[in-house]
Amino acid sequence: MSETVHPEALPEVDRPTGPVAAAVLAAGIGAFVLGLLTTLSEASMGVHDFLEFDDDVGPLSGKTILAVIAYFGSWGILHAVWRRQNPALRPILIAAAVLVALGVLGTFPTFFQAFASD
Fold this sequence. Notes:
Blueprint: H1 18-43, H2 45-50, H3 59-82, H4 89-106, H5 109-112
Helix pairs in contact: 1-3, 1-4
C-alpha cells in the first residue's frame, strides 16, 4: 500500500523571485518600446519608413515586431541575471507599471499625433 503524503508534511521550498521579476519588467519594457516607436513613427518620416517591414501592414509591422523583440530580449537577459536571485519586487513592479503607463500613453492618438511631422 502507498502512503498518503500531506502537503503540510512536505519541506517548504524557497523559490527565487527573479524569474517572475524578469517577466514583469520585460512586459513593461515591451509596452514602453511599442509606445515609443508609435510616437517616433508619427514624429519622423525616416522612422516611419524604417518601420514598414511589410507594405501591406505599414509601420505597425515594425512597431510590433521590435516591441516583441524588446520584450523577449529583455526577458532573456533579466532572467539570466536574476534566475537565482530575489530582487526587491516593489521597485520592479513600480518600474513596470510606469513603463506600461508610458507605453499606453504613447499609443494614444491624441498623444502621438501631437508629434506629427507635417
